[in-house]
Q: What sequence folds into this?
């Protein structure tokens, strides 16, 4: 569980930590769109430098980011592989029936790889420097307009924040159930794959039952404290938009202009 | 003294197919400003009573009137905001991601402005002695601390009726005593009514009145001294036991129930006389 970096928060007090979660989220999503403007090595270099600078700003060690990429590396390599095999154009290095490795294929593969890694790095920066609950609040506020389409944004974000609050409890409980089963002679992580899967059943069943009980208690407690879905609620966790937040969005616009100026018209090789 | 809670012929069962009733034909009233302790064995229907009182469950027969309103007709947000209920398990009542957030939850529900919320939260947390922990998350708190937060969350709403469903069990004896006296003080100054469901005889002894439930019926109701004298199978608080023991050995003590403090004073005087 501790190996998963994506979605974890690292407490700190860097410039990025202090940024409003709404600004971070907006800039992050915007960055992913801007990535698609890049189509030559200059633009990728600019984006790479930008990503690197942002990562440095977060005060988090570089190794931690690399650990964030690790669980996704096979997915990335698979996509890159497909890209190399099925893109045609330029000089052909290998011709093997329907499969060809061409110049453009290779270049595209490298670009796709960079794009993936940058997306992961930037989203890791956001989650590492923002408390999950702040992120939930930001999502709630940014998605507010969707309420006009009768999407229950407030309820969804409350659900999200309650789930976040119960993650440590569930982990504790899993540990407890595992200990209890161990005391009864179950051995985890041994035997064939099928046997290992079978040992999970006596963990998940009690966990499900206790989660359901917990949910009922919780619903009672919420109701007693006057919660009613669909009613207007005030917000205790206030977010403050400061000058640096506006500045960060301004930097994103500058980045866009730079990319548009550097990019080659008509794609690769023209 | 006017009654704030009026329960009349209350009957309830969880499963309509079975004969046995969880609560059968319960009738009682609680006066404004009174502290009523409900005691009884496990399964005697105490917690069910609490849930019925706040309208989480619907009675099969009978009626519950709180502050002149029928619980089952008007159980909307306005009806509930003046009743506070704290459950036994503090873990499952903790909704916020930090102590402050959790206390704020109830206030957010009544759409209270931010500045007012900050004031109320600060006050409530100071009352239960949890103010320094306001930005902690629940995983860093002990069971007793979480229970204090749950009580703060309820107090912040300024209820006129408080129901404690074994809400003090997770606390160690010392902090339980402290919190109990804080609550008692609050109740006197703000004229709050308390129904406390408990197994703790010290808590019950400090109530104005005790009601004993057994198999969904009220078997006895009266002042703590009366109950402890008559109901011999109850383990009375230490002071009461000491008094009885001393009486059998020829000591002279008043008939009525004495708190620990009264006992100490009495004993000191006693020594001086001898």
A:
């Amino acid at each position: 569980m501790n190996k998963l970096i994506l979605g974890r928060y690292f407490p700190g007090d860097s410039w990025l930590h202090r940024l409003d979660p709404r600004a971070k989220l907006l800039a992050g999503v915007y960055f992913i769109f801007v990535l698609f403007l890049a189509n030559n090595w200059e633009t990728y270099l600019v984006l790479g430098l930008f990503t690197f600078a942002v990562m440095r700003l977060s005060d988090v060690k570089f190794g931690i980011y690399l650990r964030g990429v690790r669980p996704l590396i096979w997915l990335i390599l698979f996509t890159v592989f497909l890209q190399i095999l099925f893109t045609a154009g330029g000089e052909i290095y290998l011709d093997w029936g329907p499969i060809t490795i061409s110049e453009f294929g290779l270049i595209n593969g490298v670009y796709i790889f960079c794009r993936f890694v940058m997306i992961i790095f930037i989203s890791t920066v956001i989650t590492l420097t923002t408390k999950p609950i702040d992120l939930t609040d930001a999502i709630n506020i940014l998605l507010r307009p969707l309420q006009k389409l009768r999407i229950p944004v407030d309820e969804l974000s409350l659900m999200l924040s309650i789930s976040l609050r119960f993650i440590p409890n569930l982990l504790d409980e899993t540990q407890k159930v595992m200990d209890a089963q161990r005391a009864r002679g179950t051995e985890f992580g041994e035997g064939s794959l099928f046997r290992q899967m079978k040992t999970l059943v006596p963990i998940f069943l009690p966990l499900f039952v206790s989660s359901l009980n917990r949910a009922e208690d919780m619903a009672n407690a919420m109701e007693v404290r006057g919660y009613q879905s669909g009613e207007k609620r005030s917000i205790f966790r206030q977010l403050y938009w400061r000058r640096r937040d506006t500045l960060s969005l301004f930097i994103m616009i500058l980045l866009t202009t730079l990319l548009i100026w550097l990019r080659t018209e008509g794609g690769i090789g023209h | 003294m006017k009654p704030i809670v009026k329960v009349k012929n209350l009957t309830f069962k969880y499963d309509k197919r079975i004969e046995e009733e969880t609560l059968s034909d319960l009738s009682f009233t609680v006066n404004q400003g009174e502290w009523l302790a409900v005691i009884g064995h496990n399964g005697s229907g105490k917690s069910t009573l609490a849930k019925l009182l706040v309208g989480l469950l619907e009675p099969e027969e009978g009626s519950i009137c709180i502050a002149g309103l029928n619980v089952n007709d008007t159980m909307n947000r306005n009806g509930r905001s003046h009743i506070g209920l704290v459950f036994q398990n503090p873990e499952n009542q903790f909704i916020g991601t930090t102590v402050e957030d959790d206390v704020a939850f109830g206030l957010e529900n009544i759409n209270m402005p931010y500045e007012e919320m900050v004031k109320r939260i600060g006050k409530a947390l100071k009352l239960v002695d949890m103010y320094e922990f306001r930005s902690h998350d629940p995983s860093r708190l002990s069971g007793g601390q979480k229970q204090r937060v749950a009580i703060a969350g309820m107090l912040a709403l300024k209820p006129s009726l408080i129901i404690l469903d074994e809400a003090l069990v997770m606390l160690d004896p010392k902090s339980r005593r402290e919190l109990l006296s804080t609550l008692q003080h609050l109740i006197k100054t703000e004229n709050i009514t308390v129904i406390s469901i408990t197994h703790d005889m010290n808590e019950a002894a400090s109530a104005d009145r005790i009601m004993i439930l057994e198999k969904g019926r009220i078997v006895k109701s009266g002042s703590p001294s009366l109950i402890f004298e008559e109901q011999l199978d109850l383990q009375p608080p230490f002071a009461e036991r000491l008094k009885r023991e001393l009486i059998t050995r020829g000591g002279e003590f008043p008939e009525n129930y004495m708190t620990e403090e009264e006992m100490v004073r009495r004993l000191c005087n006693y020594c001086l006389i001898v």
